[in-house]
Each structure stands twice: as C-alpha cells, then as structure tokens.
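Reopening this ticket.

The earlier resolution said the output was attached, but the attachment link was broken on my side. Pasting everything inline this time so it's all in one place.
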Amino acid sequence: MAVMKLRLLPAILAFFLLAQFAPANQGEDIQTKIAIEKNLEERLYRILTEIIGTDKLIIVIDAQLVGTDDGKDAEDEFVLPGVPLQEKLGLGLAGMQLGDTAKKIKKLSAQIIVDNSLPESMIKVVKEVSSGVLGMDEARGDILSIERIDFKRNPFSWSDIIYPPHLWGLLFTAFLGASLAVFFIFVTKTFPASAEAVSQAVRAAGEKSVSGSSGAFSSALTTAEAFSPSAGGRESGEAKGHFSFVTPDMADKLLFLLKNEKAENIAILLNYAPELSGVILSGLDKKLAGEALARLTDTRSLPGEEVSAWENKLKQKLDFFVGGKEVVADILENLSDDEMDEYIAFISEKDRAFSEELKKSVFRPSQLAGMSAEHLLLICQHFNPVSFADVLRTLPEDVRKQVLDKFPAGISSRLNEEIELGSGAGREKLISEKKSLSRLVSRLKRDGLLKTKSTEA
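Inline output:
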C-alpha cells in the first residue's frame, strides 16, 4: 500500500505543475495576438492615410493564432493563411519584424471602414494595397471587407475658438485689426487736412449718387433736380474761395451792412460773389452801386492782405448781426397762423413797409393752395410725405382739397390715407415740420424754381 502511494505521488505533482503552466501559456498567446493586431493596424493605417489623403479611416484586424498543442504546427508554418509567401516578402508580415510570431498566425480577418465620399476607384486601390500589405489569401481563409459610411463631423462650439487651430486665426485677426487702427490714427493725426479732404470727397460722392438715382414725376421735376438748392450748396461749399461764407440767405444783412461801406470794398465783394450782384446792386443806393461797379472795369491786382482783411471784417460783422427780415420771419414761422397775424399787425403799427415785406417772406401752409401742380410735385419730391401730410392736416378742409386735387391720383390717394389714418404729430413736432417745409419753400423761391401768391404780388 505504501509502495503504491509512493508511485502515485510523482503523477500528482506533475499534474499540478502542468496546471500552473497552462494559464501562463494562454496569457502569452493573448498578448501575442494583441501585439500582432496592433502592429498590422498601425502599419496599414499609416500607408492608407498617405494614399487616400484623409484620416477618416478605421481599421480593425482580428488574428487567429495556431494552438500550441496542434501537432501540425510544423507543417502549417509553410502554408499558414495570412503568412506571406516567399514571393511576397517585403510586402506582408516579413517586413514588420514580427519574427517567429508570424508563424503562429492561422487566419486574418481585416475590416476597413472608409468615408462615403471616397470614390469607387480609390476603394479598389485601398483593397489591393491592403491585401498586399497584410498578405491576404482568400484560398487560405483570410477575409478582407471594406465598408463605406458617412463620418460625423464635430459640431462647432464657440468655446473651440480659444483652442488651436481657431486660436491662431483669432490672434491674427486681432493683430490685423489693431494694426489698421494704429495706422488710421497715425494718418489722421499726422495728415489731418488730407483725412478731411478724403472724408469730404466720400461724402460728396455719396450725395451725388443719391441725387442721381432719385426718380422724377415729370420732365419738370428732372429739371428741378438738376438745379436743386442742395446741389448749389455743395458746389459753393466745394469752391471754398474768398467770401464763400456769403450766401443768398444773407441778402438783407448784407444790404444793411454795405450801405455805409466804401465802394472799393463793395467792388471786391461783387468780384468774389457775382451770384449776389443782382441783389446787392438793386438794393444799394444807385450812386454807391455805380461807383462800386465802375471800379471793376479796370483789370488790376489787389494786395492779398487787403482782401483778407475786408473778408474777415465782413465775416465778423455778419456773425454778430442781430435782427433783419429773415430773422423775424424765422421767429414768426414757429408760431401758429393766428399768432403770426397778431405780431405782424403789431409790427405794422411801427414800420408798415417792413411788415409788408414780412408778409411776403413768411411762409404759411395755406399758400400751398396757390401753387401750381408742378410746384407742388417739386415740394413733395424734396419733403417727407408723412410730414407733408401732417402739415396738410392742419389746413381747412376746402384749402386741403384744393392742394390734393392738384396732385396725380396715386400721390393724392397716398396723402389722403396718411391724413385720415395717421395719428397726427404733436405741437412741437408739427412746428418743426412746418419750419422744415418753410425752409424748403424759401430755398426753392430764392432759386426761382417756384412762386406763391405772396411772391407774385
């Protein structure tokens, strides 16, 4: 019995020793499998990304290894599927420095997923290259499949801006903006006159484009647009010559100041402001006006200091000038018609001639009824239709009807709708609208483009 136990003891010990080595061998096989698959995937991934030019690519390789207890291992190592033959050396596993581990591969399964945008011709290239790199052989059981899917694009997030590569673009944009700002500030401070000239040129070009694109109701309106007061103002402003500050609005002030001035100074003013010559010569004493005009018959050169001194003197006098028909008319036009009549009557008691001139120069909305259809269209073209309707709303119904009947049907209907459906302007806004309309009519009358009953009288 004791002898039998001694014989069984070595067998039991051998059994336990083999049981301990079996898991170790199995673990080594798993590590080898993972290493082979990873090596093949990385190699093939690098090659294919270079070929197709994109990293939208997924490669999954499954390697089945030959079991260590298989007695046919020695024979299978020459015909193992997946192991490159002698003619494929350099293309398959032999070039991957796998060593003896390549002999343990029994079967390879490779799945390649590419983007759906990849053309069919490129799919064929991917399949041929993959087969060559992996040493695939369908006759030996190797499997190679290629699938196409739409790769999902990463959604944009504003938080990505602070990270590369968006960060570089953001920094470049900020640097470029700061550089342009510094350059602009430097130019405007160093060359202020040039900057102002550029600004005026751009502004003038914009105004010309707007005036050139405006429509016309008739041929008369087209002519009026060509001789509009705003265009004349731009031309005189652009000249910037001597006495450029003198405008037709100052006619009354000029006559008041020039009646006690020397004929020489009046002649200089006429020379530089010929557009005012008619007003000046007809408003001054005939003898004084004749002497001033006679001084211009001889061509001569004047000292620049004298011209500049007289120009500055006249400008200062105009700046500190108080009163005049235009000033009083400006004040009265801020009042209602009844209040305006009261003050004109009060002025008439002291200076009847001045009050008569004042009646002609003051604009009243009721004067619109005495204008022709052509003149009303001209005013409507240069005035806001909503503001024009607000002014018409203040007129008596019969006077308003006279005005609206002179417009074409479309414009009359539009103004009627605005008058009936509009909410109406408040007192302050209405006074401002009347003032704007009065200034427009005054400019058009001064340029001879329209006449009212008061100006015809």
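Reporter confirms the inline version is readable. Residues 68-79, 85-96, 210-239 have pLDDT under 50 and may be disordered. Residues 325-456 form a domain with the Annexin V; domain 1 fold (CATH 1.10.220.30).
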